[in-house]
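Audit log entry. Action: structure prediction of a protein-small molecule complex. Ligand: pyridoxal-5'-phosphate. The ligand was supplied as SMILES and no pocket hint was given, so placement is left entirely to the predictor. Protonation state taken as written. Sequence taken verbatim from the request; no trimming, no tag removal. Recorded inputs:
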Amino acid sequence: MEKWYCLHCHRFQELDIHSPFCHLCESPLVIWPQKKGRSFHLDRPSSLEKFKAFLPLNRLETKLSLGEGNTPLLRLYHIEKRLRSSFPIYAKNEMVNPTHSFKDRGTTVVIQKALALKIKKIGTVSTGNMAASTAAYGAKAGLKTFILLKEDASLEKTLSTGIYGANLIRVKGDYGELFKESYRIGKRVGIYFANSCDPYRLEGYKITSFEIYFQLGERVPDYLFVPVSSGGHLVGLILGFLDLFREGLIKRLPHFIGLQAKGCSPIVQSWKKNLKEIVPIKVPQTIAHAISNPSPPAGKLVLKLLRETGGEMLAVTDEELMRAQGELASLEGLFCDPASATTLAGLKKWYRLNRQIKPREAVLVLTGTGLKDLSPVKEREKISLISVSLSGLEEALTSLAI
Ligand SMILES: Cc1ncc(COP(=O)(O)O)c(C=O)c1O
Ligand SMILES: [Zn+2]
């Protein structure tokens, strides 16, 4: 069995799926890397098979996969033109995962591990995306699944989770406390709560880093823009590049730029004040619900890793991210959610502040679809809809087509 390790205080810790945090600093634990000299199997169809040597899985039950990963890296030519960018900008489109967010990459590894450990009941605490992902993969694996939804989860997210038939519970109250309670109760009643910073989830996120490396022609991306809430996803991406570094395939890590919405930006606040700890936000206020975690469990670790790797944390306003959401859709045909749109809003801000830096390229990780929360779109005045009768159609089209 693999070993669990705290990247913050560099200590090994006991393996307990109901308590995946460091006893000393409370940071999420990660899997200690397997031996070096691992190889890729890029000729295999599924993403898990391609990168299995880098995962803590002895065998793969490929029939439990829903086809996650293998997502496209798209060049954003129109955005480059709009920004007068001197460097290429790419989007890693995680919206095309089976339940339309990056969470599927983590859930698929969690499910494989649950099977290996003969676990029959799984669960998660979520604002929506991890809920749908866990419910879908739980259904596929025939596991009893328990989803604890944040009270303000959108109707679309609630319905698109409920359809998979999991036990769905909406919980009122403090999200940070709910996170802790899930582990305590899960241990008592035998449910493996694979929450946002679960070590096996993070292993799945590493594959995004491997894919980007290969899609860029076996190169490390210069700048990587990632929306951050609990911090689990960003830590997972860093672990992926650390694996490539350890294998001697890359000479340095990317500059990671973590983005939060200004109305809920606990990690950015600590970053700016040069603090080592996170001060929880009392009342989160942002339209980007997917990244509105007021007390991010991996916050402290993210601060440390970004300081060590030449990264940065930035906040963008709801106005800025909504504009970016519209631009990604209208210029590039990519309808992402507000959380993902922080990457473009953040790139624009970062570019304004750092004109002297000439990146080789920037990659925006678009983590989730816009379709699961239509309220920001409804608030937009700019969606133009023309209503005509059938008899007036020709005239309308004729004037528009000129
Ligand atoms: C679409 C989307 N982007 C980004 C995140 C942030 O991920 P993490 O909590 O791992 O930082 C989430 C988390 O739920 C999400 O749903
Ligand atoms: Zn620690």
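Audit: result stored. The domain at 73-100+200-378 is CATH 3.40.50.1100 (Rossmann fold). The chain has a mean pLDDT of 95.
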